[in-house]
Structure formats: structure tokens, C-alpha cells
Amino acid sequence: MHRVTRAGLLIVAAMASSPVLAETFAVVPRQVSDEKAVFATVESVSVVPARGRIGGTVVQLNVREGDRVTRGQSIATIGDEKLALQMKSLDAQIDALQAQSTQAQTDLTRIEGLVERGTLPRIRLDESRTAVNVAENARRARVAERAVVQQQLTEGEVLAPADGRVLKKLAAIGSVLLPGEPVAMIAEQNFMLRLRIPERHARSLKAGDRIRIDGAELGEQTPRFGKIELIYPQIEDGRVIADAKVDGLGEYFVGDRLRVWISGEQRSAFVIPSGYVTTRFGVDYVRVQQAGGAVSTPVQRGRRLPAPDVPDGLEILSGIRSGDQLVSP
Q1: Which own/partner contact pairs does 226-231 have at CB distance under 8 Å and 24+ positions apart?
Q2: pLDDT tens across 52-70, in order?
Q3: How many CA atoms lie within 13 A of 99 on its CB side?
Q4: How far is Cα 188 from Cα 163, in angstroms, rounded to an integer?
Q5: I need a surface site. Which of 28, 62, 71, 282 has the fewest CB within 10 A?
Q6: Assigned domain for 142 exists
Q7: What CATH number has the domain bearing residue 304?
Q8: In the beta sheet, which residues pair with residue 76?
């Protein structure tokens, strides 16, 4: 049996009673903004119409609201019966002119032989060659006219002008459209937030300011941050319009309203991670590192102030001062 000495027992007891190192947080004042809640809508950077290039009747419609489309994708087909009739007429004319050209070429070959034998004068050869050129040029002119009509038939395909999503269909199968009328509205793929801010809160607003969206608005646990990219100079109905970019914004519901927090006036405040605050009997405490060890100090908490470096930030109104070292519970 192994003998356990008294010194060994003391070492084991000291190891068992030694405290686990806790995380610390240095309290420093930081500039925070008094945030204001405003409403914003999810909108596309631009909404472009998909227009028909020719007039006619919609004979095929390939998309519906909400479908995603790519640039150049066929959205609809416009048919024009007059173009089909013109094609048939030109085909008949081309066949007739081809026959005339073939006959003129045959006559030219026969006349060349008679001229070589001296039966006919050379002037008849020149007249025959001219007839061949006239017939061939007439045929080529009709072929060119047919190519124009064929191109018009091809332009009956309505193509998506950009990558995005179909917001609205403006025509149905059987609808009669004039040249240039829109068939569908396409919202481009890049989505942004359009804020409408009361002018009294927009005085200190500038491009590049950060905005915050609560996670609950997007069905997430953590807030999401964005940045204001453009502030429009015109005030509408007492509100300033601004566009903000937020990564990962939903791309289905265009016009969805979200509550957004914008920066207001700057002030100094103490912001600490909320995990450093404990509540006992309705009183909030933090542990402050001192010479003799960590001491629990009552504090008055303020509102939550999430920041990129402190996602669960909590403002402390009183009870701590700059330079304190907080110890995690």
C-alpha cells in the first residue's frame, strides 16, 4: 500500500482550493450615439421594365411574380400575324425572282453560243447579261426584305434586361401590346434599405454612419449592422430619404418594413458586456478587481448598446469609473 505523506496532502489541498482565472474587462469611456428608431423599407437599387420591341399579341408568357430571372432570359413572346403574312409574300416573290434569274441565265448561255457562231449580233449578248444582273439584284433585294421581317419576328422575344426578380406582370396571354410597352417589372438583384427619417433627426446624419437592425426583425439572435451610403438632398413630407447597405439582406419581399436604429448625437458612456452583470434580489452587481480581490459593486444599468466589438454591450449609468477592471462572474 502506498503511503501518503502530510506534504502531499497539503499540495493536493492547495491545488483544489486555488481559484480559476476569470476573464477581465477594462472599463474605458467610449463615444456612443443616442440612437433613434426609424422605419425603413427593403427596396431594389433599381426597378427596370422588360419591354416588347414590336407590337402584337402576347402568345407566350414564361414567368410569374417572384420568379428569379437572368439577363437575356426570355420572359414572353409577342406574335404579329402581319409579319407572318409578309414572310409568305416575300417567300413567293423570292421564288418567282429565282425562276426569272434562272431563265435569264439560261438565255445568256444560249445567246453566247449563237453570238460565237455569228448568228446573233453582240448587242444581244449585252442585253442578256443585263437581264441576268437585273433579275439577280431583284432577288437579292427581296431576300434582304425577308431578313428584316425575320428580325422583327425575332424581336418578338421579350428578354430580361437585368438579373433580378419579377415584381409584377403587366400583361397576360392574349394581351395586345404596342411597340415599347412593358410586359413585366424586374427588380435588380442588389437590395438595399430606404430610410425615411424625420428632418429634426437628420441634421447630424451623414453618409458612412452606421445603422443597426435588431435580430428579431430578421428572425435572428444577433443584431445586424449596415452603413448609410447615400442621403438624398430633397425633403419629402418633412422626411429625409437615405439609402443604406446591409449585407445579407433578404431578397424576396420588396417593400418589407423594418425598424432601424440610426445614430443621433454623440456622448460619452461606459459600455460593458452584459455577461459581467449579475442580478440578486433585484439589484445589479459587477465584480471589480481590487488589491484584496474582486469585490461586488452595485451598478445602475442603462439600455443595451450593441457594438461590433461588444455585440452584447450594456450601458452602465453609475457604479463604475474609468480604469476599473471588471471580473467575469
Answers
A1: 226/193, 228/195, 228/262, 229/192, 231/202, 231/205, 231/206, 231/207
A2: 888 888 888 888 888 888 8
A3: 5
A4: 6
A5: 282
A6: yes
A7: 2.40.420.20
A8: 61, 158
